[in-house]
Design goal:
Protein name: Os12g0505950 protein
Distance between the termini: 118 Å
Organism: Oryza sativa subsp. japonica (Rice)
Low-confidence stretches: none
Radius of gyration: 34 Å
Shape: rod-shaped
């Protein structure tokens, strides 16, 4: 009877060790995925920052162009 108990406990121990190993592997997989997601977030943030910079530069160029046109137009138009 005690030998059966030892065998049963040994099997339970083996099963628990397998479950632990599987859980550790899954945790490692999710840690890796999280790391990849964080890297992608950093890349996306940098892309957004560059796009924002280009947007501001384009807006500034547009205002300079409009100002240039206004100055040229006012120089050409003769008041009554």
């Amino acid at each position: 009877q005690s030998e059966e108990k030892v065998i049963r406990l040994s099997k339970e121990k083996d099963q628990l060790l397998k479950e632990r190993d599987a859980a550790l592997q899954e945790a490692h997989m999710w840690r890796t995925e999280l790391g990849k997601a964080r890297e992608q977030a950093v890349v996306q943030e940098a892309t957004i920052a560059r796009a924002d910079e280009k947007l501001r530069a384009s807006e500034a160029d547009a205002w300079v162009y409009c100002l240039h046109i206004a100055i040229c137009y006012s120089a050409v138009v003769v008041p009554d």
